[in-house]
Design goal:
The complex is a heterodimer of chains A (167) and B (540). Chain A is of the alpha/beta class and 167 residues long. In chain A, a hairpin with a 4-residue loop joins strand 5 and strand 6. Chain A is globular. In chain B, the strands form six sheets. In chain B, strands 16, 17, 18, 19, 20, 21 and 22 form a seven-stranded mixed sheet that branches. Chain B starts with a helix and ends with a strand. Helix content of chain B is 36%, strand content 20%. Chain B is globular, with a radius of gyration of 27 Å. In chain B, helix 1 runs parallel beside helix 5. Classes of the chains: A alpha/beta (167), B alpha+beta (540). Chains A and B meet through helix 2, helix 3, helix 4 and strand 6 of A and strand 2, strand 8, strand 9, helix 16 and helix 17 of B.
């Protein structure tokens, strides 16, 4: 599958996922495949989020939600890869998530996590350091099942997110 | 010992990782190819067919017809591995081992994770069998397995089979049977563990009186005996897994629980039983080493990836078995007229001095080595893999940075420092393969499957430092890569360096958020440029 097709599929998935999982607490404002860095994008919601002007990067997909209780705008970012994920991609989204304080950060691939990183992430200490991006928030990593056009439940890391992500 | 524990010990010995801090155990089930293919039989004469790259062809010389690929059964390995884990293996283990079970992985590997956080005494009891080692490339057969009952011994082997056993028609052996051709073999694939092959061989002999056909060692003299690969741009092709090969018809008391592997195992057994082979073809006792079997010297014989016991020349695979402690060979050796001669020739009756044998063999080995060198192909320009300009430019930075880092670290920390270009592979394998002495001091690096370009080792503090080098302007992506390495290993120093100035976008981000460089308490990535061999640190 080429990258653009994969991105479009994931945009649709993210939209449906957010509606299903967060619509009781959040208003789903927009799910976007950005064409430029978030600091330069002409998006009314992004421009309302504090510090957006230093967000000189472009995630593959982002979503903006409004928290119904606090009225606060929240950002969700998703990066994708067609090859197995390495620490390079995990480190990259970790930077994006720390920088934006994203409400959720997803990283996905058609081939899940590389063998070597899979083993690394089984060490709790390392996993926590690599996936945490503050305030008990963790990057969620998963493989995409191309044949069935859905999340590969067995590939979700951290494990405790498996049910949340695939139910 | 329950059969469940014995089976688990087999799984761990085959492909286990123990995480002592996390109180968990992970077991790898590898399936490099998504689909495994069964045996193809000729629709005309019934002989088996092989594919030499141009399609399946019947092996019967009187037939030789093309065979349709559709005659073969196809097994989806990742799917059957996950199904077997869920339906059979986890329920079996769970019945006696109250851990929390999870499955993870990707297309080429499925991992079973057992979390013992709520059963720490059981975790400790299981781990005791592996003497505080952490990975399957260090494990031995647990001592407790030797003294357990027969059923548990069978289950131990079943566990080994599920993780390191492979049944494939591709492993057929060139033999004619009573009713056909080709003898199928199954093998245990042992990765980087040089003691386990002999232990498995000896265990199967002592506990089950089973034959082993051969051990295909990942040693230069065995895998590249005539230096063909060495002189054909694959100088280290020998450095692969070891394979313990056996004929499956003798192993019917064992089973795979991974359904695709079991189905293939049954196919291979059926073929050998139907074809009828009379000889057991056990490698033991070994064949004598005659002059025709002597091998050329290989430069890889001294490679540090090989443990000391095997870091020398061998003319036959069984000599490696002896070097790694085969008790059957040792017993045989003690019966030889001149026990010191036996390791050289395998001859029990020989009365010739080992010095004379060695001298005579040496002449032949030297002759073969010279012949191999003469026969080496002339390198054709077009065949040489050209690296991209970018790759070459980045590579050119590593040597000056290695020198710089040694000076920088020793000046700053005033202690003995070793720095290396580690860009070619993972840090843990760099230490394992190229610097075992350092690995003893920096043993914690054994779990670091990361590849920074340059690594510094500070001996006194047992700390490491990383450099990541780029020839493009530094950006958030390159920072993210080094952050990833730093979050894993928490190096004392980390420098992100480029021949170009950082991108404006990175500068803007770091002006607003200088904390983005932080990866731990008082640990911060430094940015620098490399210009005409000089490293200049950048303050933002």
């Amino acid at each position: 599958m080429d990258k653009n097709k994969f991105t479009k599929i994931l945009k649709e998935w993210l939209n449906n996922f957010l509606k299903k999982k967060l619509s009781s607490t959040h208003e789903i404002l927009e799910v976007v495949i950005p064409q430029s860095s978030l600091s330069k994008i002409n998006n009314q919601y992004i421009k309302q989020i504090p510090n957006y002007s230093s967000w000189e990067f472009k995630p593959d997909i982002f979503a903006v939600l409004r928290n119904k209780a606090s009225n606060k705008l929240e950002l969700i970012i998703l990066n994708r890869s067609t090859s197995a994920l390495s620490l390079k991609e995990i480190g990259e989204i970790n930077c994006y998530a720390r920088l934006t304080g994203a409400y959720m950060a997803f990283l996905t691939s058609l081939n899940a996590v590389s063998n070597e990183v899979s083993i690394l992430l089984l060490d709790d200490t390392i996993k926590n350091r690599v996936l945490d991006y503050g305030k008990d928030k963790k990057i969620i990593v998963f493989g995409w099942d191309e044949k069935n056009n859905q999340i590969n439940k067995d590939s979700v890391i951290p494990f405790e997110q498996k049910d949340f992500l695939s139910s | 010992m329950t059969k469940q524990v014995a089976y688990l010990l087999g799984l761990i010995t085959g492909r286990g990782h123990i995480f002592y801090d996390s109180k968990s155990i992970a077991i790898e089930f590898s399936h490099a190819n998504e689909f495994a293919k069964g045996i193809a039989y000729c629709q005309i004469c019934g002989w088996f067919a092989t594919d030499n790259g141009s399609g399946l062809k019947c092996k019967n010389p009187e037939c030789g017809h093309r065979v349709s690929p559709s005659v073969r059964k196809i097994y989806n390995q990742p799917k059957s591995t996950i199904e077997s884990l869920k339906k059979e293996i986890i329920p079996l283990l769970k019945s006696k081992i109250p851990a929390h079970f999870e499955i993870t992985g990707n297309k080429s590997m499925t991992i079973l994770v057992l979390d013992f956080k709520n059963k720490i005494s059981l975790f400790n009891k299981i781990c005791k069998n592996f003497s505080s080692e952490t990975n399957f490339d260090q494990f031995h057969i647990p001592k407790s397995i030797y003294s357990t009952n027969k059923n548990s011994k069978i289950e131990f082997i079943n566990g080994l089979l599920d993780t390191s056993g492979f049944a494939s028609p591709g492993g057929w052996f060139n033999r004619e049977g009573k009713n056909g051709y080709g003898r199928m073999r199954v093998y245990f694939q042992i990765v980087r563990n040089w003691y386990l092959p002999v232990e498995i061989d000896n265990f199967l002999r002592s506990e089950f009186s089973l034959p082993i056909h051969t051990i295909d060692w990942g040693h230069p003299n065995i895998r590249d005996g005539n230096l063909t690969d060495f002189y054909n741009t694959r100088p280290t092709s020998w450095s692969r897994e070891h394979q313990i090969k056996f004929f499956p018809e003798y192993y019917q008391e064992f089973k795979f629980r991974i359904s695709s592997k079991q189905a293939l195992f049954q196919e291979l057994i059926k073929h050998n039983v139907k074809t009828v082979f009379k000889d057991k073809e056990d490698w033991f006792p070994p064949s004598k080493i005659t002059k025709g079997k002597i091998k050329a010297y290989h430069p890889g014989e001294n490679d540090l990836r090989i443990p000391e016991a095997g870091r020398r020349h061998f003319d036959a695979f069984w000599q490696i078995n002896l070097a790694f402690g085969c008790k059957y060979l040792r017993k045989l050796q003690s019966k030889a007229k001149r026990p010191e001669c036996f390791p050289l020739t395998g001859d029990l009756e020989s009365n010739i001095s080992p010095r004379i044998i060695e001298k005579e063999f040496n002449v032949i080995r030297n002759k073969l080595t010279a012949e191999a060198e003469r026969a080496k192909p002339i390198k054709k320009e077009s065949k040489i893999k050209l690296r991209s300009e970018k790759e070459l430019a980045e590579k050119a930075m590593y040597q000056p940075l290695t020198v710089f880092f040694a000076n920088y670290l020793s000046k700053k920390y005033k202690e003995k420092v070793y720095t290396f270009d580690t860009s070619a592979g993972n840090l843990n394998l760099f230490l394992k393969n190229k610097n075992r002495d350092l690995l003893e001091v920096f043993d914690y690096c054994d779990k670091y499957r990361i590849r920074p370009d340059v690594v510094g080792f500070l001996e006194k503090q047992k700390a490491v430092g990383f450099i990541e080098a780029k020839i493009t302007s530094l950006d958030l992506k390159s920072l993210g890569q080094l952050i990833g390495y730093c979050l894993v290993a928490r190096p004392l120093e980390a420098i992100l360096i480029s021949t170009k100035a950082p991108s404006l976008s990175l500068i803007k981000i770091l002006k607003a958020r200088p904390d983005m460089l932080t990866y731990g308490l008082n640990r911060k990535i430094q940015l620098a440029t490399l210009n005409k061999g000089r490293v200049n640190f950048i303050t933002i």
